[in-house]
Amino acid sequence: MVKTVKTSVCIIGSGPGGLLLSQLLSNEGIDTVLIDRRDQVHIEGRIRAGVLEQGTVEALQEAGVADRLNREGLQHYGFELAFDGDRHRIDLRALTGKPVTVYGQTEVTKDLFSRRHAQGQQFFFNAQNVQPENLLSTKPSVSFLIDGQALRVTCDYVAGCDGFQGVSRRSIPADVLKTFERVYPFGWLGILVDRPPVSEELIYANHARGFALASMRSETRSRYYVQCGADDRPGDWSDDRFWEEFEIRLGPDAARGLQTGPSFEKSIALLRSFVAEPMRYGNLFLAGDAAHIVPPTGAKGLNLAVADVRILSRALTEHYRTGNDHWIDTYSETVLKRVWKVERFSWQLSTLMHQFPQNSEFEKRMQRAEFDYLCSSEAASRTIAENYVGLPLE
Ligand code: FAS
Ligand code: PHB
User: Fold this and answer.
1) What is the CATH topology of the domain spanning 3-74+103-181+272-349?
2) Calpha distance 279→353 (Å, rounded)
3) Which of 34, 102, 173, 371 is the most buried (most CB within 10 A)?
């Protein structure tokens, strides 16, 4: 016996993308159901992004979930690029007039879950064998199992917010879907440590031994990264090894006053650039990591997911409010225009700031020349700044 649940929009994936879409639609009186293969504790526990564009902050404020973000978020009007110890500050205020806000993805997810529960949102956690169905019909559905019980959600639309490993993208036929990918020959090893950040602003460093990033979660909690081998495991990196590499790569000037200590989180993320087209198939819409991945160098993954969801929410709201399907019919074309520009920036900054094993001496000189050009050209620094604070939604 299959238990059936009816809703307007069935959202697969309860990460920040799916949660924000649910909130934005709920604010317009549009009913949703959220399905996730994991549970809330696991989803909230994933340590990921740390930097929010102003557009993301505004979206969370409009959604009514930004009270804590407004109190605890750290506004930054600049960040640094360092090359073999030489430093160059990208002055976001002078170059764009906009800040970025340091506030962990974990906190964004917790704030969204809290609001969705307070408003009685229906969730299905620990769902197995999730399967979108009848996507080309006017009555698509999503079937799944929970503790062996078969369920089906019938809806008008399915939103695939289920990340890179999700089922939604794979539900688009191979002869329709086109993918583009670059896998980088290294990863990022990240740690969390309860020590004050070494710098008030983020520092991205390229050193002959590899990339390093000094970030933070608060004035007492730091988030640090070093470039590591693509086959490395967190267990390969003791805290001592991490601190030694981090300090060398940051350089003596930037690392002055570094407070080391025991890490309480250590994980490795592999880097890839990836785009799937189209982001719509019948009544299935992809948003966020389900459709694209960027290397974390440009701090864009979460922000790109939010931008997709803002455009998708507008499209669906217009349909339910007026019956006008213009934004639905142009969704994929609209989001992909911005997705590719953000992919470009994330690829460009990753290419500039990392040590590539296969790079020739000439390519290494090109990296240094690019850095020296940024230091000497306001125009060049402005291109970095305007991408970092976030491109316009359209
Ligand atoms: P998410 O992956 O966050 O959420 C997808 C959800 O779908 C998950 O809860 C998953 O359980 C669920 N799901 C998957 N398959 C399913 C199925 N078959 N059925 C039902 N549910 C399913 N971005 C940055 O900007 N900076 C960073 O430093 C950064 N670090 C990252 C580190 C790692 C290890 C990873 C993987 C990503 C990182 N990102 C970073 C990018 C990350 O922040 C994403 O861009 C962001 O989580 C995207 O949000 P969603 O699109 O909601 O996808
Ligand atoms: C983080 O704080 O986790 C972070 C910040 C900036 C990035 C990537 C990750 O580019």
Assistant:
1) FAD/NAD(P)-binding domain (3.50.50)
2) 30
3) 34
Distance CA 309, CA 48 (A): 18
Q: In this structure, which ligand is nearest to the CA of 289?
A: 1
Q: Is 300 a catalytic residue?
A: yes
Mean pLDDT (whole number) for 350-373 = 97
Q: Average of pLDDT values for 176-181?
A: 98
Residue nearest to atom 16 of ligand 1 (CA): 166
Angle at 19 between CA 130 and CA 342, to 5 degrees: 95
Residue 247: which of 198, 283, 178 has the closest Cα? 198
Judge if the beta carbon of residue 215 lies within 6 A of ligand 2.
yes
Q: Which fold has domain 184-271+356-389?
A: D-Amino Acid Oxidase; Chain A, domain 2 (3.30.9)
pLDDT in tens, 292-328: 999 999 999 999 999 999 999 999 999 999 999 999 9
CA separation for the pair 352, 235 (Å, rounded): 28
CA of 167 to the centre of ligand 2 (A): 27
Which ligand is closest to the CA of 146, given by its number? 1
Inform me whether the pLDDT recorded for 58 exceeds 90.
yes
Burial class (CB in 10 A: 0-12, 13-18, 19+), 206: buried
Cβ of 301 below 6 Å from ligand 2:
no
> Is 266 noted as a catalytic residue in this protein?
no
Q: What pLDDT shows up at residue 40?
A: 98
Active site residue 225: no
pLDDT digits (tens, 9 = 90+) for 28-43: 999 999 999 999 999 9
Q: What is the three-class DSSP state of 163?
A: coil
Any catalytic annotation for residue 88?
no
pLDDT digits (tens, 9 = 90+) for 78-95: 999 999 999 999 999 999
Indicate if the pLDDT at residue 62 is higher than 90: yes
Q: Tell me which ligand sits closest to the C-alpha of residue 100.
A: 2
Return the domain boundaries, the chain: 3-74+103-181+272-349, 184-271+356-389
Tell whether ligand 2 has an atom less than 6 A from the beta carbon of residue 51.
yes
| 242 C-alpha to ligand 1 centroid (Å) | 25
Question: pLDDT band for position 1 (50/70/90)?
Answer: confident
Measured in Å, residue 25 CA sits from the centre of ligand 1 at 20
Annotated catalytic residue 341: no
| Residue 353: predicted pLDDT | 98
Instruction: Tell me, in angstroms, the distance from the centre of ligand 1 to residue 268's CA.
Output: 14
